[in-house]
Design goal:
It is a single chain. It is built from 11 helices and 14 strands. By secondary structure, it is α/β, with parallel strands linked by helices. The strands form 4 sheets. The protein has a 6-stranded parallel β-sheet with strand order 3-2-1-4-5-6, with helices on both faces. Strands 7-10-11 form a 3-stranded antiparallel β-sheet. Strands 12-13-14 form a 3-stranded antiparallel β-sheet. Helix content is 45%, strand content 21%. The longest helix has 22 residues. The chain is globular and about 55 Å long. Strand 5, helix 5 and strand 6 form a beta-alpha-beta unit.
């Protein structure tokens, strides 16, 4: 499958690198307003390909997105000093209006993957501007938060993260909801598993994991300025699910008709992803506290997008 990437910064280039070394895409087109940056990123990634796959990687423009089945949007403007979140979103809406229009002029009915922050609001904006069915406009959402959650639980239990089934839902941000109620290690209730192996999930352990999931990005940004490898791999995983029509269950953001008593809001839930985009939405079993937290998260996101002038 041919995949386009709009935005050749650290996130876009990390996605390109992940796609190239895994071979999930047959061709990757990298583009950016800074054409020299796009060329440099594409060339650097292309030089890694002979060691790992047969993916073709090159820089290009919008015309080169013709035939792309997936277009990843990792562009956007940065926040100015003193600028409110809503003002930043309004400026990004203008940027995405141009980008989405250019993409859809050449790529016929693509799946758009949004990797720009704040991802839930940008996913909402992109779906509205594109007019595509919501199932074909997918935000990276909490896919990385879920990976962090599973990794930290696995580290405590000293098992593989692939054996942990636990989700983070809602906003990709401070109001996200870590779902402990339905978490499992293999097919075993997580708390029971932890007790059986002598590593109980005490309230202190849960609080530490919660803190590390919520603040992981802040800690990484403090140390090196930005996060990009994790989300690069997460976006590549979504591409694989689409390209191979896997029916994989991933926590991604989507404009959702009804969730937790809130209508028409973009947030993350576990969703089945295949060749046509999102196939099915699911809500995991939640405790009363988690259900209330999801409602608060949905209301927060709804308030932000309702205030936008699109």
């Amino acid at each position: 499958m041919k995949v386009g990437i709009v935005g050749a910064g650290m996130v876009g280039s990390s996605v390109g690198f992940a796609l190239a070394i895994t071979g999930y895409a047959s061709e990757v087109i990298i583009m950016d307003r800074n054409k020299a940056l796009a060329v440099a990123q594409a060339e650097d990634i292309a030089h890694a390909v002979p060691f790992m796959s047969a993916t073709r990687v090159r820089a290009g423009g919008y015309a080169d997105l013709e035939g792309a089945g997936i277009v990843i949007l990792s562009a956007g403007v940065s926040q100015k000093p003193g600028e409110t979140r809503l003002e930043l979103l309004s400026r990004n809406a203008a940027v995405f209006r141009e980008i989405v229009g250019e993409v859809l002029a050449v790529a016929e009915n693509p799946i758009l993957l949004v990797a720009s922050n704040p991802v839930d609001a940008i996913t909402f904006i992109t779906q509205r501007l594109s007019g595509l069915p919501p199932q074909r406009v997918i935000g990276s959402g909490t896919i990385l938060d879920t990976a962090r959650f599973r990794s930290l639980i696995a580290r405590h239990l000293n098992i593989s993260p692939q054996s942990i089934h636990a989700d983070v839902i809602g906003e990709h941000g401070d109001s996200e909801v870590l779902v402990w109620e339905s978490a499992r290690a293999s097919s075993v209730d997580l708390a029971s598993f932890a007790q059986q192996i002598g590593a109980p999930l005490t309230q202190a352990v849960r609080a530490e994991i919660d803190d590390n999931v919520r603040n992981a990005a802040y800690k990484i940004i403090e140390g090196k300025g930005a996060t990009y490898y994790g989300i690069g791999a997460g976006i590549a995983r979504i591409v694989r699910a689409i390209a191979r029509d896997e029916g994989a269950v991933l926590t991604v953001s989507l404009v959702t008709a009804h969730v937790a008593g809130v209508d028409d809001v973009a947030l993350s839930l576990p969703r089945v992803i295949g060749a046509t985009g999102v196939v099915v939405d699911m809500v995991p079993d939640l405790s009363a506290e988690e259900q209330a937290a999801l409602k608060r998260s949905a209301e927060l996101l709804k308030g932000i997008t309702d205030a936008l002038q699109l």
